[in-house]
């Protein structure tokens, strides 16, 4: 399956973009109320937890930290939470956030790759990343999240 790759230019510092991607306050704004939970040590768990099918502590996405370099790289394995896969472990893929300062802005590259053939979450991920990345850009630049209504 083809990798999903997106490049966004954001009017904000790498520190501000990084904070939006990795802090509970930032992720809550851009991931529909979910917070990121991790020590960010390579090999340790990473989870996006928030309101959902299993209540306020629904695990939407989880995986293992593969690389962590503050304000530059966050890479982790990606599994969809068990409430979305009938309680079974889904297929593994990989997510990479790459930040690069470009003058007064930050280039954010997201790569979602290493998809397993037949992963039922591939198509939906391709659509969802546009909303998430647009939301990250808006939060960093304005301090306000986008309202997607029933789409989000």
Describe the protein's architecture and organization.
The protein has 152 residues and is of the alpha+beta class. The protein has a single domain, classed as 2-Layer Sandwich (Alpha-D-Glucose-1,6-Bisphosphate, Chain A, domain 4). The protein contains 3 helices and 7 strands. A 7-stranded antiparallel β-sheet has the order 1-7-6-5-4-3-2. A hairpin with a 2-residue loop joins strand 3 and strand 4. Helix 1 crosses helix 2 and helix 1 packs across helix 3. The relative contact order is 0.21. The mean pLDDT is 92. Belongs to the AHA1 family.
Please tally the β strands and state the result: 7
Name the CATH homologous superfamily: START domain
Class computed from helices, strands and strand pairing: alpha+beta
Reported by name, the CATH topology is Alpha-D-Glucose-1,6-Bisphosphate, Chain A, domain 4
H/E series, N to C?
A: EHHEEEEEEH
Biggest β-sheet: count, sense, barrel? 7 strands, antiparallel
Please state the overall shape, judged from the principal axes of the Cα atoms: globular
Order of strands, main sheet, comes to 1-7-6-5-4-3-2
Query: According to CATH, what is the class?
Result: Alpha Beta
Overall tally of structural domains: 1
Distance between the termini: 25 Å
- Portion of residues in helices? 10-25%
Task: Give the second-level CATH assignment, the architecture.
Answer: 2-Layer Sandwich
